[in-house]
Write a structure and sequence with these properties.
By secondary structure, this protein is mainly beta. The protein contains five helices and 25 strands. Helix 2 runs parallel beside helix 3 (about 140-150).
């Protein structure tokens, strides 16, 4: 695969400089734990509401993101994502991406979907939270991880009654059958209550997703940025925009081949935009598994990342390690000191270094060393021809 000299140097620096983070043991399970002194939702850092259910596992849901100009063949618009605490997006295969939404309170989770199959890169992000996991099928690599961590009592597959089909969409010719499967908090609660499923609904409170800012908010040190733009692959691009008045980020999903785009919205809310407080763009090496199709996303050693909040940015490092190690956002000085993240809902994109040449901030391309060069066209195809999808 051909790469620019800058990208080769950038990848080499990451492989040399970023060591795997220290392993952590799996969360201990307990049904009678006492609430800790902390009063925040560990996935958002926001104050817990009166109906906060201490000790309940979060739930992670795999959500389809097939995007086509023909809406019958498209998973858009998705449902329920506006109420997720964290949303991850990564390439799965063939240039397409998929979402994984994590909800702290599964009992009040809205109808969410369309549900899709799991991939190992998402399983590795989910396991440190001890989440329940809703998906319909999975790759052999994802299944191997679920087996390795004895996830049968937390694995919410359709045979346990956690999904339903909205066949009105299919029967009316609005959606292909694969885009009609959804889950909900009620279905998950009922499945857990059904002892024949052997599911585990409670344990000690999950650890914090990030090191939350002690004073609630902090001003990021970098420049003001209102538009973030990058390619996931030859097929998909992302444009993320900051609304200063609302203090929120929204995402536009762009299909390159068909030359059209759609905003990330929530069908449950009349297609209102899904909003985020925090945005992370994390760069790593993505190759192919031996089948030549599935994406092998390198999460062991970490890499360079960018954190956006409140209309400003900071260049950071990210580290993870093993499948049961948490994602950490740390300083650039090599001390692995965690950076304080402002409370709120987060969107996390993990993107291939092959596409660093398409990464622009307010229309200026970001090179491998963090400097800027003016781009005549946002989203230039520099480096895209190296993709082998």
């Amino acid at each position: 695969m051909k790469k620019t000299v800058a990208l080769r140097i950038f990848a080499m620096l990451i492989s040399i400089c970023f060591s795997a983070c220290t392993k952590r043991t799996e969360p201990s399970q307990s049904d009678d734990s006492e609430p800790p002194a902390a009063t925040v939702n560990p996935l958002t850092g926001l104050e817990r509401g009166e109906d906060y259910k201490y000790g309940a596992r979060p739930v992670a849901v795999m959500v389809n993101n097939i995007m086509s100009r023909d809406e019958y063949q498209s998973a858009w618009p998705q449902s329920g994502l506006s109420e997720a605490d964290i949303i991850y997006e990564m390439e799965t295969e063939g240039g397409i991406t998929r979402y994984m939404a994590i909800f702290r309170d599964y009992e009040h989770m809205p109808v969410t979907g369309p549900v899709r199959s799991a991939r190992d890169q998402f399983v590795q992000m989910m396991i440190p939270f001890g989440s329940l996991f809703v998906h319909d099928g999975c790759s052999t690599y994802a299944q191997a991880l679920l087996d390795r961590f004895a996830y049968a009592d937390k694995d919410l597959t359709p045979d346990k009654g956690v999904t339903f089909r909205d066949l009105t969409l299919y029967n009316r010719g609005l959606k292909a059958y694969e885009h009609t499967e959804y889950t909900s908090g009620k279905l998950i609660s009922d499945a857990i209550a059904d002892e024949s499923n052997g599911l585990s609904g409670y344990y000690t409170e999950p650890s914090n997703a990030f090191k939350w800012a002690e004073n609630g908010t902090r001003a990021l040190k970098g420049k003001e940025i209102s538009e973030i733009y990058f390619n996931f692959s030859k097929s998909y691009r992302a444009r993320i925009t900051y609304d200063k008045a609302a203090g929120k980020y929204t995402k536009e999903h762009i299909n390159i081949a068909s030359d059209f785009s759609k905003p990330l919205v929530d069908a449950n809310l009349d297609n209102a935009p899904v909003e985020f407080d925090n945005v992370f763009v994390l760069w790593t090496q993505i190759s192919r598994y031996p089948d030549g199709i599935l994406s092998n996303v390198s999460l062991n050693f970490g890499g360079v990342g960018y954190y956006f909040n409140g209309g400003r940015m900071e260049k950071v490092r990210w580290i993870k390690g093993g499948a049961n190690d948490p994602l950490k956002i740390v300083t650039l000085d090599g001390t692995e000191t965690e950076i304080e993240i402002n409370p709120g809902k987060s969107y996390i994109a993990v993107v291939s270094l092959d596409y660093f040449g398409t990464f622009s901030l307010d229309g200026e391309l970001v090179d491998a060393y963090g400097d800027y060069s003016t781009a005549e066209e946002i989203g230039t195809e520099q480096g895209v021809e190296s993709d082998d999808n």
